[in-house]
TrEMBL record:
InterPro entries: Cas1 (IPR050646), CRISPR-assoc_Cas1 (IPR002729), CRISPR-assoc_Cas1_C (IPR042206), CRISPR-assoc_Cas1_cyanobact (IPR023843), CRISPR-assoc_Cas1_N (IPR042211). The keyword Manganese applies. This is CRISPR-associated endonuclease Cas1. Keywords: Antiviral defense, DNA-binding, Endonuclease, Hydrolase, Magnesium, Manganese, Metal-binding, Nuclease. Belongs to the CRISPR-associated endonuclease Cas1 family. It comes from the Bacteria. It comes from Cyanobacterium aponinum (strain PCC 10605). Homodimer, forms a heterotetramer with a Cas2 homodimer.
């Protein structure tokens, strides 16, 4: 089953024998064995039993909490793995050291190459001058990564590449009922940004789980600036997955008309846009299907799911930090 998403308010989540039992309005809505569950994500309000919490911790199954609009609130974390050697290697890698710069360049290169490949695919389908210009601009930024020798300047390149990509994101949308002008969040105020924010929150849950499984300290990263309570390393590793997982899902549900404008609601005070319960179910299903879909991993040269690739990339990073490999290879999917 993978990840369980609880979207109905005031549900009760409990443990019966070796199974997760979910009830709403005094009726059972889900009953699934723990062994089939990788994670639990609660969107909105739910109650849960102490027995459930204890079992999730024992089985190292994370439970994340999001608002109904997709804003990340926090998570219940199992104990870190006992592999202190990975965390020692992580802590020893200082900001702007040669190793840290290599890692940051890898995260940015992966993200920008996946951005470029996305735009190239769309440009092959329907040639557009702006897409052509943006593809070349992103390639110029990628080419310039090796000339930078501090993390702040690399962050600037990452921001510039993202701005170019989102400046033509609307050209990736093939459904006239939707449009995209600029990236906005906290809260998202249009349907496309609402889907992107929700998708990135779900991706954060999955990447942070992979980082914890491998044994990292999720709060010590290299690309993202450290803030109290911010899982910087999980956000770092997310970057290369944003276009190939979240953006792909968003464009899939929009372009294939799985979600329509009727699937959104607007909060009157904040103007925050979010999905209806029905729309949320459609999006979560599409996201889970994407995670479980298979592709040929370019480094391992074998089939794996995107869900598996989260942990694979985290393990590649661990191997590099522990000097077991000479480089960190970001996941780049050719379109």
């Amino acid at each position: 089953m993978g990840t369980i998403y609880i979207t109905k308010d005031d549900t009760f989540i409990g443990k019966i024998d070796e199974r997760i039992h979910v009830k709403a309005d005094r009726k059972q809505i889900l009953d699934v064995p723990f062994i089939k569950v990788d994670g639990l994500v609660i969107l909105g309000r739910s109650n849960f039993s102490p027995a459930l919490v204890a079992e999730l911790l024992e089985r190292k199954i994370p439970m994340s909490f999001l608002t109904t609009t997709g804003k990340y609130l926090g998570r219940l974390e199992p104990e870190l793995t006992k592999n202190i050697f990975i965390r020692k290697a992580q802590w020893k890698t200082e900001d702007n050291s040669e190793k840290a710069l290599h890692i940051v360049k890898g995260f940015i290169r992966g993200k920008l190459k996946n951005y470029r490949n996305f735009l190239q695919l769309r440009n092959r389908q329907n040639n557009h001058e702006k897409l052509e210009i943006s593809i070349n601009q992103i390639q110029d930024i990628i080419d310039g990564l090796e000339r930078k020798n501090n993390v702040n300047s690399l962050r600037g390149l990452e921001g510039a590449g993202s701005a170019i990509y989102f400046s033509c994101f609307n050209l990736l949308i093939k459904n006239n009922e939707f449009s995209f002008n600029t990236r906005n969040r906290r809260p998202p105020t249009d349907p496309v940004n609402s889907l992107l924010s929700l998708g990135y929150a779900l991706l954060r849950h999955d990447i942070q789980s992979a980082v914890n499984i491998v044994g990292f300290d999720p709060y010590l990263g290299y690309l993202h600036v450290a803030h109290y309570g911010r899982p910087a390393l999980a956000l770092d590793l997310m970057e290369e997955f944003r276009p190939i997982v979240t953006d792909a899902v968003v464009l899939n549900v929009i372009n294939n008309k799985k979600i329509t404008p009727k699937d959104f609601i607007i909060e009157p005070l904040s103007n925050a846009v979010s999905l209806t319960k029905e729309g949320l179910q459609i999006f979560l299903r599409a996201y889970e299907e994407k995670k479980q879909s298979k592709f040929k991993h370019p480094v391992l040269n074998r089939q794996c799911t995107y869900q598996e690739s989260f942990e694979i990339q985290a393990r590649f990073l661990a191997k590099y930090l522990m000097d077991e490999t000479k480089q960190y290879p970001p996941l780049i999917i050719k379109k």
